[in-house]
Amino acid sequence: MTEGSGTPAHRPRMPADRVERIRRWHERAYRASSAPDRPVSSVSYFGHTIVVPSEVQPITPVSDLLGRAVLAEVREGDRVLDMGTGSGVNAILAASRAESVLAVDTNPKALRAAEDNARRNGVADRVEVQHSDVFSEVDGRFDLIVFDPPFRWFRPRSLFETAITDENYGAMNRFFGRAREHLTENGRMLIFFGTSGDLDHLIFLADEAGFDRTVVAGRSLTKDGWTVEYLTFRMTPQ
C-alpha cells in the first residue's frame, strides 16, 4: 500500500548511519526478490496450508510473532479486519474463531492468493477479500484490526516491493489517522513492526492517535552484524 507523490517526504527518526544501513539492506532484499526464478511457495503454518505467489510477501521466520498473537487475541464473535492481508495468512488464523474477517490489500496477486488460501483452508465462508487502499473501501467498525505494515518508507519499484516499502509511510500515516473510527467501543489492534524500519515513527503515530500499547511478542535476529528487534504490539484507544 503506497501513497501518491503528494505525501510529504518522510524524515526518519533515527541517526543517519542507521538510515544508510537500512537502505543497503533494503537494496539487497530488493535484488533477491527481483530474481526471475522466484518460485511459488507452499508453507504449513499453524496447521494451515498457505500458498504464496512470487509477487506476494512470503511467510518469514518472524511471522509467527504476529500469528501467535492473532490466535491468542481473537475471540468468538469478533468482527476482524486484516489490513494488508498479503496471502491471507492472518485472516485465516483469525477465522478459526472470529465470526467474520474482512481481508484487504492493494496487490491483486495478494487478493487472489488470499481468496484461494481461504478456500483451501475451509474458511471462505467467514473471510471476505476486498481491494482497499488502507480504509478507502472499508465500512463499519471492527473488534480487532490486524496490521503488518511495510517496514520501509522508500518508493516501491515492483508489485512485490509494495509489501515491504510504503512511500513516505503514506499508508501507515493514514492508517493511524483513521483507525479509531473503525474500532468498536472495546476494539483493539495488533500491529507488527521492527527496527529495520522507523519504529520510532510508528510509536509517534500511535501516541499521536491516542493509543495505549503493550508489546505482546518479540524476537531479536542478527544479520550482517546488525541485530534487529521484531515486535508485535497490542494497541487500544486511550
Q: What coarse outline follows from CA principal-axis ratios?
A: globular
Low-confidence stretches: 1-5
- Total helical elements: 6
Count the beta strands: 9
User: What is the oligomeric state here?
Assistant: single chain
Write down the overall mean pLDDT.
94
Q: Portion of residues in helices?
A: 25-40%
Rg, alpha carbons: 17 Å
Instruction: Quote the distance from N terminus to C terminus.
Output: 27 Å
Strand content: 25-35%
Main beta-sheet strand count, sense and barrel state: 7 strands, mixed
- Indicate the structural class: alpha/beta
Helix and strand run:
HEEHEHEHEEHEHEE
Strand arrangement in the largest pleated sheet: 5-4-3-6-7-9-8
Polypeptide structure, described:
- It is a single chain.
- With 238 residues, the chain is an alpha/beta fold.
- It is built from six helices and nine strands; from the N terminus they run αββαβαβαββαβαββ.
- It has helices spanning 16-33, 64-73, 89-95, 108-120, 170-178, 199-208; strands at residues 41-45, 48-52, 79-83, 100-105, 127-131, 142-147, 183-194, 211-223, 226-237.
- The strands form two sheets. Strands 5-4-3-6-7-9-8 form a seven-stranded mixed β-sheet.
- Strand 3, helix 3 and strand 4 form a beta-alpha-beta unit.
- Helix 2 (64-73) runs parallel beside helix 3.
- The chain is globular and about 45 Å long.
- Residues 1-5 have low confidence and may be disordered.
Can you give keywords for this protein?
disordered N terminus, seven-stranded mixed β-sheet, 238 residues, 6 helices, alpha/beta
